[in-house]
From TrEMBL, chains A, B:
Name of the protein: DNA-binding MarR family transcriptional regulator
Gene3D superfamilies: Winged helix-like DNA-binding domain superfamily/Winged helix DNA-binding domain
Species of provenance: Actinorugispora endophytica
HTH marR-type domain residues: 1-153
Cleavable signal peptide: none
InterPro entries, sorted: HTH_MarR-typ, MarR/SlyA-like, WH-like_DNA-bd_sf, WH_DNA-bd_sf
This protein's UniProt keywords: DNA-binding
Length: 161, 161
DNA sequence: CCAAATTAGTTATCTAGGAAGATATTTCTT
DNA sequence: AAGAAATATCTTCCTAGATAACTAATTTGG
């Protein structure tokens, strides 16, 4: 069904799979680099921790409802409860009751959590400049982001069952 | 350090983080769609299973050394042993000794494994056309793939400690 | 050629997260 | 306003992988 025709209108199954594979490989090769050594101790930080810290750091009062945060970082509610437990146990996060809706619990950064978030963010940005902006250049990055946005939006439509 | 200057040479920390976030979001929104219902029973297939099946399907004799396969799908050797156990237990994979190097074990597709791989691949390609090629178009996909390739290659250089 | 370092694979043990169920609180429908 | 449906969180149980230790087979350096 797929011999290469005019190269302008068609794409083979193989090339499709390969192209999508590149996307995967790019992320799995690059992502670890961007979290490398951004821990206070100079150790790597786990993706989920970073995603949570970043979001709380830029939120008003440095806090968000647990369930919203869970959705944003793509964790199940049960999974996020345990991530929050871990962060809390380490002193980076505190749970706060919400007066207006007693079902919700805010996950809020502590002083130490905020410090951790800011420090990790700064290091992460430096690594982004080195490992992403450097190799791709501004145009490359923008091209990538534009396609990624299209993909995200269309997939959310289709997939948001 | 980062006010928006000429828009042509600079990018803010925020935009950098957002741009990279788009990349993440695109993958995490789209990827599940591409594995949806590609199981024989019409159920979703897990990413690692699919990656393994695809690679074996296109390999000579439909087999590869365990350790090579583990690297290609980004699993630890111990993790891959258990994935292979599962596939074997389900009748899709068989372990074969390698005569020329008695350390290695081949992971080889069984008849059923090959059938599964081919069927999953066909369904996956259809989903790729629908959810990736459709929204992005051929140029979009190629743009994405080109940037992804740059990223992968440069990160492998940096990261391949 | 032999000891040392490498490489392949398996086997514990441990941690992160998903799924499903249980509560408590809202919100929606009459 | 009462009952039903939805939402937020937590808990229990289960599975997938990571890590590290161990064995066996190879390769390498002297």
């Amino acid at each position: 069904m797929n011999t290469q025709a005019g190269t302008t209108e068609t794409i083979t199954d193989d090339d499709l799979i390969t192209g999508w594979g590149l996307f995967h490989e790019a992320l799995s090769a690059t992502d670890p680099l961007l979290l490398r050594g951004i821990d206070p101790c100079g150790k790597d930080m786990s993706g989920p921790w970073f995603e949570v810290l970043i979001r709380l750091q830029r939120s008003p009062d440095h806090r968000l409802p647990m369930s919203q945060l869970a959705r944003e970082v793509s964790l199940s509610s049960g999974g996020f409860t345990k991530l929050a437990d871990r962060l809390e146990r380490n002193g980076y996060l505190a749970r706060q009751a919400c007066p207006s809706d007693r079902r919700v619990t805010y996950a809020a950064l502590t002083e130490e959590g905020l410090a951790l978030a800011e420090q990790a963010r700064a290091k992460h940005v430096a690594l982004l400049r080195e490992h992403v902006l450097g190799p791709l250049g501004l145009e490359g990055l923008q091209a990538l982001a534009a396609q990624a946005r299209k993909l995200r939006d269309s997939s959310r439509e289709s997939g948001g069952l």
